[in-house]
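Students often ask why we bother encoding 3D structure as a string. The short answer is that it lets us treat folding as translation between two languages. Here is a chain of 191 residues written in the first language.
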Amino acid sequence: MTRSKLVIPAVLTVLLVVLVYLFFRGGRDGFRLEKVPSAGKADPSPVAEGEKKTITLFFLSEDDDRLHPEERQVVSGTSPTEEVETTVREFLKGSSDGLLSPFPPETGLRQAFVTGDGTAYVDLSKAVQDDFTYGSSSEIGAVYSLVNTLAFNFKAVKKVSILIDGGERETLGGHIDLSRPLVPRFSLIAR
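And here it is in the second language, the structure alphabet:
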């Protein structure tokens, strides 16, 4: 082999190594990727801070076994999932009008989302069952206060599946089957 035939591959190899080094070093230290707005289109901006939405939450009363509405103002979400989560969190805070909250105060929301077929999945913390006993009336009230709250506020929600600590449960207290999504029962709302 001639010397010129060896020099060309050696130079190409060195050049390749230098380019790879500059590419990775430059990408990490010298170049910054910045979001550039596309011409003619405005960036989708999040909902303005403070933009409000009225939601209706349903709670129990000491006077009867009906669900009583309570309106509340919340900041609008940027997506349907965010709005469902905001509504469930407000619901879990309990009533501000002296009505009875159906779940223990320690109950938290782990996750919520709505599928394309209109099923809202609400994953509650295990505190919803820990050290809390549900009778048949209180379990019906607890389950349907949440189901009705979501179906009433969101046209896309046709049924609600309640999960506990990331999994399906047969029931909260032995009276309502939670292994399948539940449709709202608006007949339980006080008139």
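Translate back mentally: Residues 94 and 101 are 5 Å apart (CA to CA). Keep this in mind for the problem set.
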